[in-house]
Design goal:
Blueprint (H helix, E strand, L loop, with lengths): L1 H12 L6 H28 L6 H8 L1 H4 L4 H14 L31 H10 L1 H19 L8 H27 L4 H24 L22 H8 L1 E3 L4 H6 L6 H6 L8 H14 L5 E3 L2 H17 L14
Parallel strand pairs: 1-2
Helix pairs in contact: 1-2, 1-8, 2-3, 2-9, 5-7, 6-9, 7-8, 8-9
Length: about 325
């Protein structure tokens, strides 16, 4: 995946590309590598599950920085907020969206949401463009206000490092090609944006299919701000697997089609998910907890669209959901 990302960019930086179609082809190929890095390398590494060696995980976690994002921000957003508060409105940062998108039945409803199942694909596509430009900075500031990054100079050092990493990324991903490729700058920019559109679309679909589904629940805390069930029950109720028999999909997306296994065992490397699925499913049945699975990617996409349409049409806020199961 690292080679799939860097080799096309290195070729672009040589200035040997003189045709528009090859320019776009190389950037799109690099986009596939970028999504592979995000889902198959950094995701495990930042969870601490790529290797038993902490330094190895830290080093490979920096691959996220190499593709223009930030490992520190992701760790808070994903490891802490998403995995702890899965599908909880205003707490799970993966479903906190701009006003024109509605990912939870508890989120405020606007009339425009009735069309979100149509226009959402565009916003999925530009999601990583937001990451490499503004989103990381906005979230870093917000996370500081939430009490994260509270060590001495931690916020300042993270901010400086973030700026440095992003400048490095811009340098080899867009500046060098613009300098050396004998094509109009706007064509190079469009090709660069196409790379991110492919990455954003793939990454968003992979993660959102696991949680924004008709069978998944969107629980709320009780009056004392406590969950209605144990942590494991919550994860089973809010997560869905898909295409469990596809070895190709498993390899391409870093095993994230086994999201249930990932959520109940986040410290286990994704290469083991397929072998663990029978044990996890049996345990869920034993303790009366749901185990959601969609047989194919097409079925999962269809149900995701169905859920987006449902969320777009229903303005009524649902009451808190009691999740089955206990620790």
């Amino acid at each position: 995946m690292l080679a799939l990302f860097f080799v096309p960019l290195a070729f672009l930086a040589t200035g040997m590309v003189t045709s528009t179609w090859l320019l776009f082809a190389l950037y799109i190929l690099s986009g596939l590598g970028m999504s592979g890095i995000g889902m198959g390398i950094m995701h495990d590494a930042i969870h601490g599950s790529y290797s038993k060696n902490k330094r190895t995980n830290t080093l490979l976690g920096y691959t996220f920085n190499l593709i223009g994002a930030n490992a520190t921000v992701w760790k808070i957003q994903h490891n802490v907020l998403h995995h702890t508060y899965t599908n909880i409105d205003h707490a799970d940062d993966d479903i906190n969206a701009p006003f024109f998108l509605r990912f939870s039945p508890h989120a405020k409803h606007y009339w425009v949401h009735q069309f979100q199942h149509i226009y959402i694909w565009f916003f999925y596509g530009i999601s990583t463009i937001s990451w490499i430009t503004t989103k990381d900075f906005v979230r870093l500031k917000r996370y500081r206000k939430m009490g994260f990054l509270d060590k001495k100079n931690e916020f300042r050092n993270t901010l400086i490092g973030m700026i440095g990493w992003k400048l490095l990324y811009y340098s080899y991903a867009i500046v060098l090609p613009m300098i050396f490729i004998p094509l109009p700058w706007w064509q190079i920019l469009l090709a660069f944006l196409s790379m991110h559109f492919i990455t954003g679309l793939l990454v968003s679909i992979v993660f959102q299919l696991a949680h924004i589904m008709p069978d998944n629940e969107f629980p709320l805390p009780d009056a004392n701000r406590k969950m209605n069930a144990g942590w494991y029950g919550h994860q089973f109720a809010t997560t869905t697997n898909y295409a469990p028999k596809s070895k190709l999909i498993f390899w391409l997306i870093g095993g994230l089609n086994f999201q249930v296994e990932h959520h109940v065992l986040p410290d286990v490397c994704h290469v083991h998910y397929a072998k663990l699925t029978k044990v996890v499913a049996q345990t869920a049945r034993e303790f009366g907890m749901p185990y959601h699975v969609k047989g194919t990617l097409v079925e999962a996409l269809r149900d995701h669209v169905k859920m987006l349409r449902s969320l777009g049409r229903k303005a009524k806020v649902m009451s808190p959901v009691v999740v089955l199961g206990s620790e």
